[in-house]
Amino acid sequence: MGAESKSPWVLPFSSIGEAEVPLVGGKAGSLGALRSAGLPVPDGFCVTTAAFRDALAGDPAFTALLDRLDEVKAGELATARTVGAALREHVSGRGMPEAMRSAILEAFSVVGEGHAYAVRSSATAEDLPHASFAGQQDTYLNVRGPEALLAQVRACWASLYTDRAILYRIEQGIPHRDVALCVIVQRLVQAEKAGILFTAHPITGHRQRMSIEAGWGLGEALVSGIVSPDRYTVDRRDGRVVEVACGEKLVAIRSVAGGGTETQTLSEAEQRARVLDERELSELTALGARVEALRGCPQDIEWAIAEGTLFLLQARPITSLFPLPSPAPEDGFGHLYMSFNHFQVMTDAMPPMALHVWQLALPFGRTPGEVRESPWASHAGGRVYVDLSYALRSRVVSRAVTTALGAADRLVQAAVREAGARPELSPGSGPAVSTRKFLGHIVPVAGAAVGWMFFRPTSGAISHLTGWLEAEAEAGRLALLNEAPLAERVRTARALMALRIYPLIRKVPPMVLAGIAAGRLLRVLVEGPEEDFVALGRGLSGNVTTEMDLAVGDLADLAREHPAVAARLVEGGATVETLRGVEGGEAFLGGLDAFLDRYGARGPSEIDLSRPRYRDAPGSILAVVAGNLRTAKQMSDAEVVEDSGRGAHRAHHARLAREAEMAAGRLLETARRGLLGKVKVPLVRRLIGTHRDLVAAREHPKLLLIKTLDAVRHLVLSAGAGLVAAGRLERADDVFFLDLHELEAALRHPEEPLRERVASRREALARFQELSPPRVMTEQGEIVTAKHAEGSAPRGALVGSPASSGIVEGLARVVLDPAVEVLERGEILVAPFTDPGWTPLFVNAAGLVMEVGGMMTHGSVVAREYGIPAVVCVPGATRAIRTGQRIRVHGDGGYVEILEGPAASA
Predict the structure, then answer these.
(1) Which residues are catalytic?
(2) Which controlled-vocabulary keywords does the entry list (predicted)?
């Protein structure tokens, strides 16, 4: 025992379990538990974190170096290297207390001094559910003799401060002082073959496919990346070897007499020979399944084979896998899930309350009037996923759904089409949507669409629809504002969300379908230029999102009427409070209040119930106004009048409307030509009117849903405030980490504990936010991917889907958070996604590039109405493009060229 610690300095593997993890770290804790469970883990012992801390306790030089390390920020590689080198030199050169030295050597003698050992590091922050420190610290192989052992223990301690370990901890937000290091001393297996086993496929995510890498000699050759190993994929359900790819294994690392290792060049036959036979693969698969069952999650396992015996060297969780959909299906059939977040063009993770309201709102798989969660709606990694398998098993429904997905996201469409061809999702392979029931829903909608397309008056229809939506939203708000107990109102909120979409389905889709179909039929009837058909979809009246954006432009004009207000906004960082004391501030804030009265329920990432609305945080609107003013202020007299500032947004919209009228005139003139001209003209005129009058309804359903979410948000925050007052929650917004069922139960049962549940879910949300959600995945976690065809895109271009025609060249502005980042007029907006809460940025944008979306997702619709070129569904755009780069957006070709500017990140 140490003088400064009551914890042991040394622990044999036989004494290590989960309780000892704080002393030995995750890696060593796992080894101890697995050896105790009877798995073939070579014997050894651990020099605990207590030894590490006591060896360095009271060392002022060490403390001073840690103080310097605490000041290193992410990306400061040079500083990290300097401080890290000083720490490594200090720690490795520091003496060890005699009592500690004796304790280590005593344990060494018990396991056998005459053997060769692997000396490995196990940090206390290693192998957390959300972070893997694999390869961050050092490993020493074929260590022989007491003095070599003690030297390598100190070297392992020092490796806690390698450059990569320091920077990784900074990125993960793990304080350096919170991490200590245990050293694993383990009998070395003199392996003839060794490698790595992933119990779930690390690339596809498939939980039933094990991936095995193997090479000759010690596994260090694979871990260090100096050989291309054999790769085997095994289906754990039946042991079938799905894939074998023999790598070019040029070298092997093997032990040498007296200690240490050497790299040996292999013969040509060994380089190409298959490392593992069927029996060994079967043994590895069985070992992997057993380890995973014991550890409770997919594992990354290091293994070795010596003299025909399989050994387990290490096991850690695979931290890179995207979580499985929950609730998990229990019917034994194949399932395919589509990301609803991608469909809604908002891919951030959401807390449980936000997930739950959408599980209630989605109508799939239940009958109208049922107040329950959709059985087709699941969640994974903080995102909502919709089970498409029932639809795919019906030929008629599958074709309809797959076709419709193309308007939302072509990569989703391609992935669903590929997966839908698999046997487990083919017609007859499991439960499916009834074609009769499907047609029973679709035929009335299609019939109503035909009525709107050819017979019903369309002039004023959007205005009438808007009034109906406003009335519905107000009725929902009032339903949650009665005098009933909070628990009863939460129950009402659940019913409100579950029933909200059904009246929308009957009312809005027929109008939108009629508008879209009219535009397509026009292309069949009239041989006009494409730009005329495109012009017809611009400058529309009644689109609720476009009207909001025009209202933001009006705010900028109001600011221009008060120079002091405009100046304060241009400075940046203006708030409602700072504007009150500025001359003209009250007048401007009056306009802002009017804007918030109408649009306050909206906001960035608004499908997430927990996100602030404009009413809560108007700073993002003020930032957009500032960007508009700032750029207009910098424009020269040579700029065209329309872009010179005041009224520019209204003038631009009016110009697009005039161009649409002229395009309509040209199309009508073309229709008059030929033998059937007199017959076609009335029909073409009708279709033009239908198209322009009804397409704008595309954004209306979301308006009602968002206003309903706003009312529910207000209710649950009130409940959260009450739970805070009762001492049951720390903050009112903790309520978003419960679902509506849990909130109702918490209000009815004041003894129910909440704080621990909230804390663990808040931590999980932070972890999920770092994950990139797949567009499409199976029930086994397999990520089904697709790529865009390169087409006519030049080499090196970023390929996506064309969304709004035209070509624009300009400076890119990568925006990840519209609440804090400003887009200046004439810049090209590059974003992970956009929803109506983002589109005020479009007031200033010259073009749009998005990582998700399709022709009919909202950013694309608004871009077309604004007449700005757009390319969407461009994977990785916000990483490949940097702010300030000059880029060219090809809205017709569906690709983006990076022309010049700061180098793109990897």
Answers:
(1) 858
(2) ATP-binding, Nucleotide-binding, Pyruvate, Transferase
